[in-house]
Amino acid sequence: MAPTLSRRRLLRAGPGLAGALVLAGSATAAPVPAPRATTAPRPAAPEPSATPSAPAPVRPLRHPIHTLRDYRRVLPGPAFPADAVALTIDDGPHPVWTPKILRLLDKHHVPALFCMIGNQVLGHEAVARSVVRDGHQVANHTWSHPTEMAGRPAARMRRELHRAQEKIYDTTGYAPALFRSPGGDWSPGLLRAAARARMVPLDWSEDPRDWSRPGVAAITRRLLSARPGEILLCHDGGGDRSQTYAALRTVIPALAARGLRFVALDHRHP
Ligand SMILES: [Zn+2]
């Protein structure tokens, strides 16, 4: 059983994350603006319309993470191997494609980061749990996957993040500390919202546009062009992912045979 954490604890980072973000702030965060009268720092105070657990803000990053090098710059830890790549899988969990992909990953001993949509976890709880049970990582990919997330009002951003976070945690016991915006749509406001929710914004290096079903060959070709240090994107949700699955069946062993090593993006809240 996962330890029971209060909602307050869930949405607060441990000292590790706070430290990492402050550290990141020295290298990549935006300068801290002078406090305005209406937003004087109140580190422990809940935000007005948020859950009672609304976390204290931390400095937002200027850009989301795109590569393993960025990742390590923001989140200190042991260096990734020189031949490392990371696989990220978005928009699930899905009752058909997620289990198939899980079996494939298991066969090749490949870890992945599943960027889950809260309202897809809803109704597919057992699938979400199987992702975590298999040892994979989970990121927050909003509650409802809104288009143009970067331009949404701050309250909507906050709701999308927090509702997904609660659903993922309540279902799996895993509290994501990485956040991926739908379509990689970012703005300073969204980066601030992620920081307030104690989440690190994550993008990708290589996008085969598998969601648009360009054909197995096109997806395969793009993924096979992966180079060390890249974060690869593909999808297990959002529709028929048979092309993605077929491509991964070729790509995973082929990249491994080329000497690339799949690594876990394992940053999470305690
Ligand atoms: Zn998505």
Please describe what this structure looks like.
- The chain is α/β, with parallel strands linked by helices and 270 residues long.
- It contains 10 helices and 7 strands.
- It has a single domain, classed as TIM Barrel (Alpha-Beta Barrel).
- It is 38% helix and 10% strand.
- The strands form 2 sheets. Strands 1, 2, 3, 6 and 7 form a 5-stranded parallel beta sheet that branches. Strands 4-5 form a two-stranded parallel ribbon.
- Zinc ion binds next to loops.
Bound molecules: zinc ion
Distance linking N and C termini: 15 Å
Shape: globular
Task: Give the CATH level 1 class.
Answer: Alpha Beta
The number of helices is 10
Arithmetic mean of pLDDT = 85
Report the structural category: alpha/beta
The CATH architecture: Alpha-Beta Barrel
Q: What is the tally of beta strands?
A: 7
Residue ranges: pLDDT <50 for 5 or more in a row?
1-16, 18-57
Note the beta-strand portion: 5-15%
